[in-house]
Every structure is written in C-alpha cells, then in structure tokens.
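Help needed: design a sequence for this.
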C-alpha cells in the first residue's frame, strides 16, 4: 500500500509516522518560567542528534488556544531544560504530566512528581529517573510554516542513576517507549551478526 503525503491529512500523517517510526524515546522535560513555576511534560518527537557536539532534538507544538506550549515558551525564555529519560515505574506520572495546564500551574505539584535540584543553573530533574540531561538551548529550526517547532539543545551535564549501572559500567534500564499513541516495553536483546 502506498500513501501519498500530498493527499493525506495531517492526522493521517501523524498516525502513519507515529506507528512506523518506532519505538520513540520520550523526553520528560523539566523547565522553569520567570515566576519560578516548574513545568514538566513528555515529548516523543525526540531523539539524539549527535554525540559531538552532544545534542538532542525535540519538536514542540502549540496549545489549543494557539499559544506555544509552556515547555517551548520556557526554553525560549530561559534557554535551559532538563531532559529526563524515565523507567517503567514512572509511566502514570509521565502520562498525567501531558495534561494541558495553565502556565501558572506546575505539573510537579498537581501530579506529585518528585523533583531534585542538582545544579543551581539548570531546572531540577525528576527524582529517581534513570537518566537526566542538563541542557542549554542551541537553535530553533525553521520548518516551513509548521506550528511544531524543532529545537536543538546541547547537553552540558548528565546524571545516571547508580541503580541502573551494571557491574561492567553499562547503563541498563527499561525505558518507557512510545508507539503510536500508546506505550511499549523494549523487547529482548538481539545479538548483532558478525561482520
Ligand atoms: C508520551 C507523550 C509524548 C508527547 N510528545 C509530544 C511531542 O513530541 N511534541 C508535542 O508538542 N507534544 C507532545 N505531547 C503532548 C504534550 O506532552 C502536551 O501537549 C503537554 O501538555 C505539553 O505541556 P506544556 O504546555 O506544559 O509544555 C506528548 C504527550 C505524551 C503523553
């Protein structure tokens, strides 16, 4: 079956892409606004861009009233974000934190998401997640007239939860992955064939 993207609707494109490009990692992003309100929200149009320079890319859209989502507004204003990668036990809180709230309300308070301040100069991380990247805004990408804005952020520091470092020093945890509009666990490991 062939889908011609000049004929598909925006929602069909989303369905096709989000069920085909899988699994998507989820950036659980913490930002703060000028009044000190801590914002927490998940984003799965997200991936690593390069290890050198250490950069991530995340695409963030607008609210129903057409204002930029709080995460986008906060990164534009404060140029910082903390990108957490959560393990399975956080699924409920991660999903709840996608609820659209007023700018003055904090998902961390409303959904009882525990925070931990690690660096004064970066937003707090979510306590006990597997991994957190402390990032600085690098660049916004112009994408035709898209309402979803791709942002590149540069990793300045990384936290890895000691619980998930195995005896060989490798990071090993069960992340929450996005498939379509749902979630999946990663499957079992496959040995790469010899080349
Ligand atoms: C797992 C998951 C992934 C999401 N990925 C994205 C995304 O990549 N881009 C986006 O704009 N919204 C995404 N959303 C929706 C946002 O989380 C939601 O709009 C949230 O309210 C934004 O919060 P904010 O206004 O506090 O930034 C996702 C939601 C969920 C549950």
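Sure. Designed sequence:
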């Amino acid at each position: 079956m062939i889908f011609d993207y000049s004929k598909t609707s925006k929602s069909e494109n989303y369905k096709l892409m989000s069920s085909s490009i899988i699994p998507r990692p989820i950036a659980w992003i913490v930002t703060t606004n000028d009044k000190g309100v801590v914002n927490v929200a998940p984003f799965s149009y997200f991936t690593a861009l390069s290890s050198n320079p250490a950069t991530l890319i995340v695409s963030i859209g607008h609210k129903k009233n057409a204002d930029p989502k709080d995460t986008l507004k906060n990164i534009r204003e404060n140029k910082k974000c903390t990108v957490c990668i959560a393990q399975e036990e956080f699924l409920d809180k991660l999903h709840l934190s996608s609820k659209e709230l007023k700018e003055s309300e904090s998902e961390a308070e409303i959904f009882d998401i525990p925070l931990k301040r690690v660096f004064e100069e970066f937003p707090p991380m979510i306590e006990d997640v597997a991994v957190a990247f402390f990032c600085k805004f690098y660049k916004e990408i112009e994408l035709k007239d898209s309402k979803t804005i791709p942002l590149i952020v540069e990793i300045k520091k990384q936290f890895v939860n000691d619980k998930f470092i195995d005896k060989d020093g490798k990071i090993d945890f069960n992340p929450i992955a996005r498939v379509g509009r749902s979630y999946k666990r990663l499957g079992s490991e496959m040995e790469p064939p010899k080349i």
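Helices lie at 10-20, 70-78, 91-96, 107-110.
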